[in-house]
Amino acid sequence: MLLFGFGRLIYVTVLLINAVCVLSEDRFLARIGWGRAQPEPGFGSSYDNTSVKAKTVNLITSVRTVMRIPLIVINAVIIIYELILG
């Protein structure tokens, strides 16, 4: 018996992508210091664009930009599938 099949994997993936896309940069990410607009670095220091934090912020922004329209379609297909086949 397969408890965690391919369909469940698709649901989990879509839900995780939805969670990333719903994150508000102004309300949530900026409060924890993960906003796109970082404060100017102090004298003698520089902002590191290669850090894990900067790459994660860029990944979140990229996913939100690229997956906006496909997620609308994918969510609509999943909702219709669940309504018809339950």
TrEMBL record:
GO BP annotation list: endoplasmic reticulum to Golgi vesicle-mediated transport; protein transport
Pfam short name (any one): Yos1
Transmembrane segments: 6-24, 65-84
Protein location: Membrane
GO CC terms, sorted: COPII-coated ER to Golgi transport vesicle; endoplasmic reticulum membrane; Golgi membrane
Keywords (A to Z) from UniProt: Membrane, Protein transport, Transmembrane, Transmembrane helix, Transport
Signal peptide region: none
Family the UniProt entry places it in: Belongs to the YOS1 family.
Name this polypeptide is given: Protein transport protein YOS1
Biological source species: Talaromyces islandicus
Lineage of the organism: Eukaryota, Fungi, Dikarya, Ascomycota, Pezizomycotina
